[in-house]
Structures are given as C-alpha cells and as structure tokens.
C-alpha cells in the first residue's frame, strides 16, 4: 500500500506540474498541455479503475484549488453544481476508466494507448455536455449549442488526446511490466 500511495502521489504531482506547461492556448479557449493527463491515466493502468477514478477525483480537486473554477453563466446553485460535476468530477474522475479498458484488452502494448484514448474521449464527452447545457450562451451567432461545444472543446481536447496517446506508447513497456508484478 505504501508503494501504491507513493506512486500515486508522485503521479498526481507530475500531472499538476505538466498542467502548468502549456504548449499553446486553443483558438476558442482551453489550452494544450504537455500530457498532463498521462500520469493520472498511468495510475489507473497500474492499479485499476477504482483507484484511477479516485486519483482522477483528487486531481480534479487539485485542479480546482490551483486554477479556480471559472464563473459559469448560471443563476442557480444547481447549474453551478452541474458545471463542477461535468467539468471536474466526471471529466477527471473518468480518466480512471483507463484502468478498466486496459484490463479488458488482451494485447497490453495496444491496450495502453487505447485505454488512454477512451478515457480522454470520456473527458471530452463530459466537457461537450457541459458546453451544451451550461456554456452555450457563449456560442457564436448562428452556431448551435452542440456545434459550439464541439468546436470549443475539440480545439484543445484533440491535441491533448494525440499527445497523451503518443506519450503513452513510450511508457507502455514500463506499465505492462509493473502490472505483471501485481
């Protein structure tokens, strides 16, 4: 348990540091980091989906504490809670899904990047829904809520997905070796 907690703590710290290294700001909003989700996904791959979800939730809390929560264009507490649920709790907690996907796929070298892609796609889905339900008031004139949310979130999440998937290939051998030990 000591090793598990230590590795998780180091990975969460690495995620925070990597989230501060912005490669660029996306044209509509959001930013592209140097693979800040990969350490959280790695925790899920190493220790399973439940531990990965918990780690994602801790990362969400750290993210909210360090960067703040942007003020959503809502008038009621329920909508504000929906933003926190979709854009933080589910989006970052969902990175832990990588652990479940990894366990399902037989070819582990293939499973590492696929699990990362599925987890990030889930994060995109959470942000996409939030964009439709809450943030669509910022949609450009003549652009529907779904299209606006897709463009806004896709403009940075696609790059995050590509960077994380590529980097995951480089750590796959270590992850596979570590998961065989457990």
What does this structure look like?
The protein is mainly alpha-helical. Helices cover about 75% and strands about 5% of the residues. A hairpin with a 5-residue loop joins β1 and β2. The chain is globular and about 55 Å long.
Features:
7 helices; two-stranded antiparallel ribbon; Arp2/3 complex 21 kDa subunit ARPC3; 182 residues; globular; mainly alpha
Blueprint (SSEs and pairs):
Blueprint lengths: L1 H19 L1 E4 L5 E3 L4 H10 L1 H19 L9 H17 L3 H8 L3 H26 L11 H37 L1
Antiparallel strand pairs: 1-2
Helix pairs in contact: 1-2, 1-3, 2-3, 2-5, 2-7, 3-4, 3-5, 4-6, 5-6, 6-7
Provide a quick synopsis of the model.
By secondary structure, this protein is mostly helical. Helix content is 75%, strand content 4%. It starts with a helix and ends with a helix.
Average of the residue pLDDT scores: 93
Low-confidence stretches: none
Radius of gyration: 16 Å
Kindly report how far apart the N and C termini lie. Answer: 12 Å
Question: Helix count?
Answer: 7
Measured as a percent range, the helix fraction is: over 70%
Which geometry do the CA atoms define?
Answer: globular
Largest sheet, spatial ordering of strands: 1-2
Strand content: under 5%
For the record, what CATH class applies? Answer: Mainly Alpha
Oligomeric grouping of the chains: single chain
Largest sheet: 2 strands, antiparallel
CATH topology: Arp2/3 complex 21 kDa subunit ARPC3
Order of helices and strands: HEEHHHHHH
The number of domains: 1
Helix/strand-derived category reads mainly alpha
Number of strands: 2
